[in-house]
Amino acid sequence: MTRNVALVTGSSRGIGFAAAVELAREGFAVAINGPADDDELRGAVERIRAEGVPVFAAPFDVTDLAAHDRVLGEIEVALGPLTTLVNNAGVGVMQRGDPLEVSEASYDRCLAVNTKAMFFLTQAFARRLLRRDRNPDLFHAVVNVTSSNAVAVAEPRSEYCVSKAAAAMASKAWAVRLGRENIAVYDVQPGLIATDMTAPVIAQYEQRAKDGLTLIPRVGQPEDMGRIIASLASGKLPYTTGQAISADAGLLVPRF
Asked: Domains of the chain (ranges plus CATH)?
């Protein structure tokens, strides 16, 4: 059976896991990624396998650029030719606070994971696709998960905002390069989403959402993002590429 094959980074939990579930429900074979071959990754693999599609565990650190092509090759041996890359893996700041107090270590970590790893994994993925003939009946895409903080500043997480703004521009750059190769590139920018990363603050944002911070009065769930990612990866927005999808319930709509 000919099917789409996706690698979803950071997919052992949160938005990445939700995206993997939705891709599986669309019939994709899915490679599940986490930084280590641990119980969380193995559990995610088993839950995706229950959707009835081929699944492969791909534990690797996305910042290990030298591993990218090797891992992509292992995925293709196990699942078939890749058609789809979802760059979801990301980290937050090491400590929230004043930009005057941001450490070099926190800045470098955000840029390494959220920007540099995404850029070069996309490069390795694209090079692999361009070396071979591709099935014209399958949609080929890169879906990057950045953040509403690519646009709006959160002062206590300034280095994170910088990394996501850079990732958003990388998405545009890859859309320009890969459009002529019939590979679509999208940038999903989540707003207030209930994940492990936001757990320390999400309760206060739930109330603020109800009070009007977002136009739809609730915080988002990983499943919301998963459906958006799977729709884009499945080609359900034909004749599009380069779009930034503000998946934020209207958080950033200008109003007065």
From this structure: 5-247 (3.40.50.720)
